[in-house]
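Tutorial handout. Part one gives the primary structure; part two gives the three-dimensional structure as tokens.
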Amino acid sequence: MHKAIIVEDEPRSRELLCSLVQAHCPDIEIVAQAGNVEDAVMEINAHQPDLLFLDIELQTGTGFDVLRQVEDLSPAVIFTTAYDHYAIRAIKFSAADYLLKPIDVTELKEAVTKVVSREKATQQHLMASLMENLKQLQNNQHNPTLTLSLANELEFVPLQEIIRIEAAGAYSKFCLVDGRNIMVSKNLKEYELLLAGHSFMRVHNSHIINLNKIKRMLKTDGGYAVMSDDFPVIISPKKKDEFVRVMSNRHL
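Part two.
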């Protein structure tokens, strides 16, 4: 049995989540509930739970304020939010788990199954990555660390180490500056949306490239971007004007 705490400032939402967990997650025991940052920190330190259901927006602060104040960052965390909060980007960068309200039972069960099986050391690294990414995004800095979820581990990759991301069916292949290739079971569309505004651009159906890693441009056959690993990435005709405009502005 895994001990869990629900941190949610809206009483009805708190009661509903508790009922859903009790009905559909038989291995989870709700040992405490809290409605504000101060009570949440006290309950977490007192009970040392295995799992936190943590609302992002609380009346006295945020769920991140809770994490900053607890003594141990090893509990698994599932964030909950009623809308697409600004912090969702940091959460997605870090491959942390979250549920949008109203909470779907299937998504709840899947999230619980995933997080309780995660090793504590991995969870600590993931939360540390999340807090650093949140700080960077709040300060308008642009080098967060992208957490790639692999079969048996999490890989933490700073954006500046990614040269390009190549489509491989339903998978995406990350090509890194150290020569490694990492295959992830997500498609390019997810990373296109996530990396928008971070010097990455989808220039073809098969490629997202790091604009900072372009070595030179070739005008032959419609246009290529030769990357720092010497791989020539074709520029789609539909993307050519946008690509030229973006690159021209970058070099003003």
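Part three, for discussion. The chain has eight helices and 17 strands. Residues 2-138 form a domain with the Rossmann fold fold (CATH 3.40.50.2300).
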